[in-house]
Amino acid sequence: MQRRTVVATVVGLVAWPLRGIAQPAGRMARIGFIGGSAPDPVVLRTWVEPLRQGLRELGYVEGGNLAVQWQFADNDPQRLPALAAELAKAKVDLICKSRRPSVR
Q: Which residues are within 8 A (CB) of 66 and not within 5 positions of it... i.e. 6 or more apart?
């Protein structure tokens, strides 16, 4: 699958549940994002920026009507459960996780 298709699919899956959330006026939608690697320039360019752009195209602006809590495991998969628990405790509306495609 091409990267553009993967990014479009991720944005669609992330934004779709947000459309159904009945929010009081002035309440921001809240997404928790877990990245398995470090927030290096490649991750920012290939995952974070396309996600932000896709959400903007759907009318969600980070810092406006959307708050995103970014968490990165810094290539340590044992940190993922704690990061997910932290996001659940923060009561975000949706948690999504990046995943690098496996190389075959």
A: 28, 29, 30, 31, 55, 60
Model confidence at 44, pLDDT cuts 50, 70, 90, reads: confident
Q: Could you report the per-residue pLDDT of 64-87, keeping only the tens digit for each?
A: 999 999 999 998 989 999 999 999
User: What ranges do the domains of the chain cover?
Assistant: 3-97
CB atoms under 10 Å from CB of 60, counted, come to 22
Query: How many Å apart are CA 4 and CA 96, to the nearest integer?
Result: 18
How many other C-beta atoms can be found within 10 angstroms of the C-beta atom of residue 56? 14
Tokens of 14: 């992330």
Q: How confident is the model at residue 104 (pLDDT cuts 50, 70, 90)?
A: very low
CATH class held by domain 3-97: alpha beta
Q: What is the pLDDT of residues 54-64, one digit of tens each?
A: 999 999 999 99
All residues at 6 or more sequence positions from 52 whose CB lies less than 8 Å from its CB, including other chains: 62
